[in-house]
Structure formats: structure tokens, C-alpha cells
Design goal:
The protein has 201 residues and is of the alpha+beta class. Helix content is 30%, strand content 27%. It has helices at residues 14-23, 32-41, 108-119, 139-151, 180-190, 196-199, and strands at 2-6, 45-51, 54-64, 91-99, 125-130, 155-163, 166-173. A seven-stranded mixed β-sheet has the order 1-2-3-4-5-7-6, with helices on both faces. It starts with a strand and ends with a helix.
């Protein structure tokens, strides 16, 4: 599988934008133009994947730098681990991971995840996904996705957050732990560059 690094200069690929805007719920998306801007400003690791010349999918990782202080944000958690110490070390956030719909179920997502895990081998990495414990119309799909990450070495952190009626769970791979305070700091870092309140319709 071929990898192509995406930057602000080459991000205007119609396939990338189309997949991004169809693979994720609206409430999980940052407007495309803002996302392209954040590639440079947040030093995002945006990678596209190809089999030969065929576009397969992409991943976006935020290689988060070490933190020395907490940030205050307005996110309302579903459960809390407040009071625990912050992680004063780098932490990679697997932000977006998508495969073209017609190519799913063929093992290509597994290949991409294998490459991503290898790239950040030995480092602490986290991701959020729709909670498999929440009653919803796509609960079976969420459970399959959760099991997929468990099979690949991820573990539950017991940290949850809510956006309106959507509950998200945080999973982790690599050394260390992840707390609600860590999540609040990551959201605080994002809001230095982009906030939904200022960009909503």
C-alpha cells in the first residue's frame, strides 16, 4: 500500500474531501477549508493511502506535544476522572480514519491501521469512537468497530464524553493512561485554532 503525505499545498483533492464529508457525521466534522488550514497550523499528520493508483482512504493524526498546564473548556463529560494528574508527555490523537465505502470489508482498513500503529510504535496513541454502550440505531456497527480496535491492541480508558445526544468513548494504545483532564487539554489546544461556536451555521 502506497502512502502520500497531505499538506495544505496538495489537499485540494476532490476524493479526499468527498470521503471526509461522507464518512463522518456532520457533528464530528470540521469544515473542510478549516481542516486544511489546521494541517499546517497544528502540524497534522494527514496521510492518504493507495493501492496502485486507486485511492483507498486516509488518516489524520494530531501528534500532540507535551503539556505543562491544563486548559479550561466547556465540554460536558458523561463521566469524570477529575483530579488525576495530567500526562506531561507527547500523545498522538488518531483524529480521523476513513476507507471508501465500496472498499470496506476487504481488509484494507486493517492494512492502514497496521501501518499507522507501526508508524507510532511505542508511543501513546488515543482515539474516540461512538460508544458501543449507548442505545442507538447503529449499536451493532459500533460494537463491531469497538471489537476491531480491541483486536488491534487498543484498550478502553473508561473516559467518555457527550456531544448533544452522541456519546463517545476514548480508546488507547501504547504506554500510560488517559484521563478526562487529558481530553480537556486536547480540546483546549484545538480551540486555540478553531471553535465550533464561531463557525456554526
Amino acid at each position: 500500500m502506497i502512502q502520500k503525505q497531505i499538506s495544505t499545498e496538495n489537499a485540494n483533492d476532490g476524493q479526499l474531501k468527498q470521503l471526509y464529508e461522507t464518512a463522518f457525521p456532520k457533528e464530528e466534522q470540521i469544515p473542510w477549508d478549516d481542516l486544511v488550514r489546521l494541517i499546517g497550523e497544528m502540524h497534522l499528520d494527514f496521510t492518504a493511502y493507495y493501492e496502485g493508483e486507486e485511492f483507498i482512504g486516509f488518516t489524520i493524526v494530531y501528534p500532540r506535544p507535551s503539556l505543562t498546564s491544563s486548559s479550561s473548556v466547556a465540554t460536558q463529560p458523561c463521566s469524570s476522572e477529575l483530579g488525576r494528574p495530567s500526562l506531561l508527555r507527547p500523545l498522538n490523537w488518531y483524529w480521523y480514519f476513513a476507507v471508501k465505502e465500496e472498499l470496506r470489508g476487504k481488509g484494507l482498513g486493517q492494512k492502514i491501521l497496521n501501518q499507522l500503529i507501526e508508524r507510532y510504535k511505542g508511543q501513546s496513541c488515543v482515539l474516540d469512537m461512538e460508544s458501543p454502550r449507548q442505545e442507538c440505531d447503529n449499536k451493532e456497527q459500533r460494537q463491531r468497530r469497538h471489537e476491531f480496535y480491541l483486536r488491534n491492541g487498543f484498550r478502553d480508558t473508561s473516559v467518555y464524553r457527550c456531544w448533544d445526544d452522541l456519546e463517545m468513548t476514548i480508546m488507547m494504545i501504547g504506554p500510560g493512561t488517559f484521563t478526562l483532564q487529558d481530553w480537556e487539554e486536547i480540546v483546549g489546544e484545538l480551540r486555540k485554532y478553531w471553535t465550533w461556536d464561531k463557525n456554526k451555521d
